Amino acid sequence: ISSNQVNVDTLTSGDAVLLADARLDVINYELTITFPTSSSSNKAGLVFAHNGSNSYYSVVLNRSTGKLALYKVTSGSWGSALQESAATINDSTAYTISVTQRQRTVDVALSGQSSALSYGSSTDFGMGKSGMYSDKTGVKFDNFKAIDALSTPPAVPRIGGSADVSLSSGKLLVNGATRGGEAVVEKFTGGNYLVQVYVDQNGGTTADVWIRYQDPNNGYKVEFYDSEIWLKKVVKGQWTTIRAYAGGGASAQTVQVRGSYSYPNYRITVYVGGTQQFYEEDNTFTTGGVALRRCSII
């Protein structure tokens, strides 16, 4: 450690892994990486879900491919990237990556660039150790953070969760592009209720209102995508479309989502501007909370 940074001085069998003992399956990570000169063919980044036997997942800046990438490493063997995105990576420049692990999903962002990843797995990533990876000496790591994403202090009373949330011009700005996640209405749950929000997509392409929200990988979400409205069911991180409606959407509008019980089924009804757009019945989740994702909302 020099100047409060972790410096990679030596490699073992061609790489270096430094681990901390954070063991959570819903967690926010942040790490700053600086490559030395003559490192155009190297990679460095974050390690998570390490099982103690050299198997883990890693989000790296890959100089060889010029991409931000997610890999699964099995017994020290790196396969093909699970997902990757083009990025600008130079020597002697500090880059900060932000990673949100939510059981079966991982969202990644690279500060100051549009490069981002959003990956869903069919199984949980797990709760192994986390830390840093490099296959090049001279790489510097700084500002490593591992934060319990379910205990994030609320941005305003009763609005918490794992999203990057702030107040702007009287609106609640939910910036999903920063580290993923949802803004959750805390200590609220039920099966029969009405949610009303003014949704402003704020230049983005999608905005989600969750109903009967269980956790980041389970619940129903009403997704506003450009001029379309979708109702999707998310079970164990995998989503299916219940209803796609190609109309009634706008970049800014008042939305109502109602959860109700109509014997023998549980119903979800979507209104825009006070006008009913559609309803669907599904009994997978009969109760749950409310959450917001990737949008700004009054």
Separation, N- and C-terminal Cα atoms: 46 Å
Outline, from the CA principal axes?
elongated
Task: Give the tally of β-strands.
Answer: 27
Largest sheet: 7 strands, antiparallel
Low-pLDDT stretches: none
How are the elements arranged and paired?
Elements: E1 6-7, E2 16-20, E3 26-34, E4 43-50, E5 56-62, E6 67-74, E7 77-78, E8 83-86, E9 94-102, E10 105-110, E11 116-120, E12 129-134, E13 140-148, E14 159-161, E15 164-168, E16 171-175, H1 176-179, E17 183-185, E18 193-200, E19 206-215, E20 218-225, E21 228-235, E22 238-245, E23 252-262, E24 265-272, E25 275-281, E26 289-293, E27 295-297
Antiparallel strand pairs: 1-13, 2-12, 3-9, 3-13, 4-5, 4-12, 5-6, 6-7, 6-8, 9-10, 10-11, 14-17, 15-16, 16-27, 17-26, 18-23, 18-27, 19-20, 19-26, 20-21, 21-22, 23-24, 24-25
Q: What would you say this structure looks like, in words?
A:
- With 298 residues, the chain is mainly beta.
- The strands form four sheets. Strands 2, 4, 5, 6, 7, 8 and 12 form a seven-stranded antiparallel sheet that branches. A seven-stranded antiparallel sheet has the order 14-17-26-19-20-21-22, with no helix packed on it.
- The chain is 1% helix and 58% strand.
- It has one helix spanning 176-179; strands at residues 6-7, 16-20, 26-34, 43-50, 56-62, 67-74, 77-78, 83-86, 94-102, 105-110, 116-120, 129-134, 140-148, 159-161, 164-168, 171-175, 183-185, 193-200, 206-215, 218-225, 228-235, 238-245, 252-262, 265-272, 275-281, 289-293, 295-297.
- It starts with 5 loop residues before the first strand and ends with a strand.
- Strand 19 and strand 20 (218-225) form a beta hairpin.
